[in-house]
Amino acid sequence: MEHSISKDLLLMLTDADDHNVIIQVGENQNTRDFRAHSNILRARSHYFQIALSKKWVTKRNNEDVVKYKKPNIDPGVFEIILRYIYTDEADLSEKSGTDIFKLLIASDELLLEKLFKYIQDYLIENRVTWIKQNFDFVFNIVFKYVSCKKLQEHCLASICEDPHQFFSSKNFPSLDKNIFYSLLKRADLHIDEVIAWNHLIKWGINQIPLLKSDIDEWNETDYEDLKKAISQFIPLIRFSEISRADFYDNVRPYKAVIPHNVYEEMMKFYMKDIPPISIISTPRVRRPLKKLIKAQKPFLMKTVKGSVRWNPY
């Protein structure tokens, strides 16, 4: 009869009585004690190498068993993790998106890199619908973890495909500046440049406490504060992709927050068709292809120093 090491270790986890670690997981009414073996925990997780050191654990009743608490992990999630530690297996097919996401965060905390990578890939490949339905929750969490690079990229790509709902959400004005910078920097952000500019102004205003909503009531200090808030984003705006009319209506009122040389280059561009030097002029796909082609039909295409821009005039 064939026996696998994983089955033997699972039997050791579930049936053996020689455990020397008790891990109390959960809090309040949702707690559970898990029995395990310190040697296996240390061998499989660098986290437990540290956590089960003498500095962090306490003996129970002067016995050889040590007790350790993990109140921030759900018992159901930890059960999957402990099984994985012993068997190197994790079956996620019957788990909800919420539980899988909790498992992702827990595996990152416990430094289970192989499991973390597997769960991240599994979410992207098999729980796309759940991610869309819980996008705000997922988005706000994954950007707190450096290790969630794939999920971060997945979220950014999803926004780029259809950014209007995201930018119009109530949470957008408080978006972390590094995330917003990453979005504006992308070439596949499907949004008109003037709309990107308007969202930048909206975001910038929200960063300044007590700033009045009516621009007519602003003073020099207000403009200076907004300029500081959005200065690092200015190079990301393709001003040459904004029409004359939109520039006049949406950009000109905020002339004071734009560096003088940038504004002057735009004036030369509009008035004398002189290509800007310090302004990004290479267009990016700001709208889905079908809409972009439809919108470009009445336009003329010009080449400026190897780049292509669409000019409605």
The number of distinct helices, counting runs of at least 4 residues, comes to 16
Major sheet summary line: 4 strands, mixed
Instruction: Give the terminus-to-terminus CA distance.
Output: 81 Å
How many beta strands in the DSSP annotation? 6
Detail the topology: elements first, then pairings.
Elements: H1 5-15, E1 21-27, E2 30-36, H2 38-44, H3 46-51, E3 58-59, E4 66-70, H4 75-87, H5 97-109, H6 113-126, H7 128-133, H8 135-142, H9 149-161, H10 163-167, H11 177-185, H12 193-206, H13 220-230, H14 244-251, H15 260-272, H16 289-296, E5 300-304, E6 307-311
Parallel strand pairs: 1-4
Antiparallel strand pairs: 1-2, 3-4, 5-6
Helix pairs in contact: 4-5, 5-6, 8-9, 12-13
Describe the structure.
The chain is α+β, with helices and mostly antiparallel strands. It has a domain at 192-313. Helix content is 51%, strand content 10%. It is built from 16 helices and six strands. The longest helix is centred in the middle third of the chain and has 14 residues, at 113-126. The radius of gyration is 27 Å and the shape is elongated. It holds the Pfam family BTB.
Concise overview:
InterPro entries: BTB/POZ_dom, SKP1/BTB/POZ_sf. With 313 residues, this protein is an alpha+beta fold. It is built from 16 helices and six strands.
Short key terms for the protein model shown above:
313 residues; disordered C terminus; elongated; 4-stranded mixed beta sheet; 51% helix; 16 helices; alpha+beta; two-stranded antiparallel ribbon
